[in-house]
Amino acid sequence: MSMNSEGRVTRPEISAETTAAAEAPATFTGNRALMLEEALIFERDDYARTGVDIAEAPAAANRLGGLERHRAIGLPGLPEPEAVRHYTRLSRQNYAIDLGLFPLGSCTMKHNPRLNEKMARLPGFADIHPLAPVDTVQGALAVIDELAHWLVTLTGMHAVAMSPKAGAHGELCGLLAIRAAHDAAGSDRSVILVPESAHGTNPATAAFCGYKVENIPATADGRVDLDALTARLGPDVAGVMITNPNTCGLFERDMKRISDAVHAAGGYVYCDGANFNAIVGRVRPGDLGIDAMHINLHKTFSTPHGGGGPGSGPVVLSEALSPYAPLPFVAKQGDGSFKLIEEETAGEDHPGSFGRMAAFNGQMGMFTRALTYILSHGADGLRQVAEDAVLNANYVLRSLDGLLDAPFGASGPCMHEALFSDDGLAPGFTTLDIAKGLIDEGFHPMTMYFPLVVHGAMLIEPTETEGKATLDQFVGALRSVAERAKAGDAALKAAPAMAPRRRLDETAAARKPVLVWKDEPLPEAAE
Amino acid sequence: MRYLPLTDSDRQAMLATIGAGSIDDLFVDVPAEARLSGPIAGLAPHASELAVERHMSKLARRNLSAGEAPFFLGCGAYKHHVPASVDHLIQRGEFLTSYTPYQPEIAQGTLQALFEFQTQVARLFGCDVANASMYDGSTACWEAITMARRVTKRAKAILSAGLHPHYVSLAKTMARFTGDQLDSAAPSLTPGAPGDDMARLLDAIDGETSCVVVQNPNILGHVADLSELAARCHEKGALLIAVVTEPVALGAVRSPGEMGADIVVGEGQSIGVGLNFGGPYVGLFACAEKYVRQMPGRLAGVTTDADGQRGFVLTLSTREQHIRREKATSNICTNAGLCALAFSIHLTLLGETGLRRLATLNHANAVAAADRLAKLPGVELLNTAFFNEFTLKLPVEARPVVRSLADKGILGGVSLGRLYPGEPTLANGLVVAVTETVTGEDVEALAQALEAEIAA
């Protein structure tokens, strides 16, 4: 088997009849060769079994204060071989970056090096308690300090708050610092401006810490409307939240002018750093006047996404906001040892801190991985990361010229992601059909219907860890699916036909939510 | 560079397709004054696996890991044995390197695992429904307080003195900005029931109260019956939020849901997730079904596909930030997916039988240790009711004792001086956690070292 120049696999043609999995004969088990159906653990009669050998408890008086559990909990147990099979079978129903291109725009699915995993599992990092005496965890504090140093250096900022647990938690951290700074200045500004192309987390975060949110429109070329933004600035505006590179995949050329205008009006600039991988090593947000920016370690520095998380969202801060950074805070002392500044000493060492925003010391396991990745890439590698990410995205953008509408294709090079719309598809065909068609081609679809400023948006982010041959094959597949959607191929409406499941009814799931297993048969399962 | 597949000739060919002369042409929108031309200050060039391993291993060796020492630390993070297959399974690439299941047809593995996780959490906590996990227990606790505000339309939360001080600290940080009123108190070293302030809580609930937040077992290890508190809350139109930082306890102790709690949140680290110096952990969140549309976070639900086959999807997303923007129930747009999976796999291996055995073993070990340590001269065991963690009142300040024990290679507990630096009345308190990983020799080593420290 080989690939031709368009990335199409060249092998004997297989007729349409035999490829339609839906027409394959039913099997007794419901399995289809290597694609195995797997019951829920609750549907097996395994309530008395266990897969763990636990030592017999020594005889001891019960001191539970009369609160012993009497009723059964209802937790099935699987012996180890069956547990391993259950989860291995489930795993095979997932798409993953280890299987192929995962071009989710704005989510940044890049290769996850296994060295990161190995380092995070060293007992010296994985098996230490957050409240252990500080002199027994100096190596962990050194990791935090070293990573913090590189994050500050790479962004050109002044300090970094390490404890936020995810990107959206980092946004919260940045806005709390902005509020604390205004409070300290005796100002009670109440409004945060958010461009309409922003991630939904931006307005939600502003509301979650008590701000009113006002939207700022985008220009026809996909950037923040500078005039509309400056016109709205005033004594009630606490700050602006901007994503740069933005969610249309474009660099905000006016970033410095925006920052200057916001500062002149007494506000602060928050930058959503979700897309930092496009500029790492080439642009320092600090030079653009940013006051706070979260860095999704999992995106730029390749910590695993794990089916949704955990994330990690350290926030770099300008000099103006640094005094308000949350607790705890790692500080290097004169003798080279590290100190953990908590509530106890915050009064002397870090008096302006707005306080604690998570129980312990942040996502240590992610810090280890991110530092491993930074050191592996080094200065030359990180710069190459941004260059290859941008090159790959522009290659996808231009390879689809004339096929899919690229609303901002003339607005300048895209950064790390290419944006298309559903303009020009046959009546009744949508972005969703293209996405589901790509599944049958063996690709994870791109981000759909985001950003909201583009109708039927398709946001494609290849990342820097894809080679040219993979991109050619993806472009070829997308071309084929898009041509079917333009021609009104009815079979595309039924895609995916070859995935573990055909199109799932999300409306029914929301109308009558079934969120936990109930012992009576589920109505949906009865058919 | 081993992580970057493009060759220079690929790059040239691709630039030609794009119609760009050089990479710099792709960065034209970056103003010249913001472009970095030189190398990143101080950062070495790319390094081999071997070189990076050496550097990181050297840093790791500067830490005293829990497995190297008799280990008694708890207070919200616990050392339990995690079966080898848990870590093996979460490292399968199809779990480790998958993303949020936005395309459910090719994410059934993650979605089914989350649905099973939700069911396990709901059952463990004695609640109707649970979500697909939160960042950690402390942030889940604050989210529960904001949810109670939405449900009751009131903004006064009463926090138990037995609630983890970091959870209290976080709530105070947030309340300063959101305008919620918090009524909190420091715990006391009450003999019999340390940290328990049931009478204060019962007394404080009024028609303005949105919720009472109580941790069980509490920060000092005391376990309490929450039934009367739940009844009083409901009488006054308030919600009872129960916090569980040691879910293994629920293998032995009645669940908060069974005692009447409306929302139960917890830290799931104990089951399947390592200590990791504080994170990543996994927040657990469960509640009564009638409040489901006010819940924060993600939810996996059941549906059918075009062939009528059962499948799973993320659902009720109209509560979430990507649709509701500033009107969302929370700004959270993730869950601790991989940690939730580890929790769920470990709990599946344990099953009801294993969890009960594990809980019984934890309790028995803790009782034996408590009795041994209470015999030390001048040492008082404050708890009569506890699960695997209890509080000792030492005749001296506990913090320097913990410090000196570490020098002897014993991680001997959490001093209340560390947790409550502003409360001198608590300075002699030492919270000792004893799990299945603690041996009789470990307890004897602690007892003898503690005795020597007190005498010194």
From TrEMBL, chain A:
GO terms for cellular component: cytosol; glycine cleavage complex. Residues 387-486 form the Glycine dehydrogenase C-terminal domain. GO terms for biological process: glycine decarboxylation via glycine cleavage system. The keyword Oxidoreductase applies. One of its GO terms (molecular function) is pyridoxal phosphate binding. InterPro entries: Aminotrans_V_dom (IPR000192), GDC-P_C (IPR049316), GDC_P (IPR020581), PyrdxlP-dep_Trfase (IPR015424), PyrdxlP-dep_Trfase_major (IPR015421), PyrdxlP-dep_Trfase_small (IPR015422). Keywords: Oxidoreductase, Pyridoxal phosphate. Residues 185-306 form the Aminotransferase class V domain. Transmembrane segments: none annotated. It catalyses: N(6)-[(R)-lipoyl]-L-lysyl-[glycine-cleavage complex H protein] + glycine + H(+) = N(6)-[(R)-S(8)-aminomethyldihydrolipoyl]-L-lysyl-[glycine-cleavage complex H protein] + CO2. It is an enzyme of class 1 (oxidoreductase). Residues 1-21 are annotated as: Disordered. It comes from the Bacteria. Its EC number is 1.4.4.2. NCBIfam families: PRK04366.1. The glycine cleavage system catalyzes the degradation of glycine. The P protein binds the alpha-amino group of glycine through its pyridoxal phosphate cofactor; CO(2) is released and the remaining methylamine moiety is then transferred to the lipoamide cofactor of the H protein. This is glycine dehydrogenase (aminomethyl-transferring). The lineage of its organism: Bacteria, Pseudomonadati, Pseudomonadota, Alphaproteobacteria, Sphingomonadales.
Automatic annotation (TrEMBL), chain B:
It comes from the Bacteria. It catalyses: N(6)-[(R)-lipoyl]-L-lysyl-[glycine-cleavage complex H protein] + glycine + H(+) = N(6)-[(R)-S(8)-aminomethyldihydrolipoyl]-L-lysyl-[glycine-cleavage complex H protein] + CO2. CDD domains: GDC-P. Residues 1-449 form the Glycine cleavage system P-protein N-terminal domain. Keywords: Oxidoreductase. One of its GO terms (biological process) is nucleoside metabolic process. One of its GO terms (molecular function) is glycine dehydrogenase (decarboxylating) activity. It is an enzyme of class 1 (oxidoreductase). Its EC number is 1.4.4.2. Gene3D superfamilies: Aspartate Aminotransferase, domain 1 (3.90.1150.10), Type I PLP-dependent aspartate aminotransferase-like (Major domain) (3.40.640.10). Belongs to the GcvP family. N-terminal subunit subfamily. The glycine cleavage system catalyzes the degradation of glycine. The P protein binds the alpha-amino group of glycine through its pyridoxal phosphate cofactor; CO(2) is released and the remaining methylamine moiety is then transferred to the lipoamide cofactor of the H protein. The glycine cleavage system is composed of four proteins: P, T, L and H. In this organism, the P 'protein' is a heterodimer of two subunits. This is Probable glycine dehydrogenase (decarboxylating) subunit 1. It comes from Rhizorhabdus dicambivorans. The gene is gcvPA.
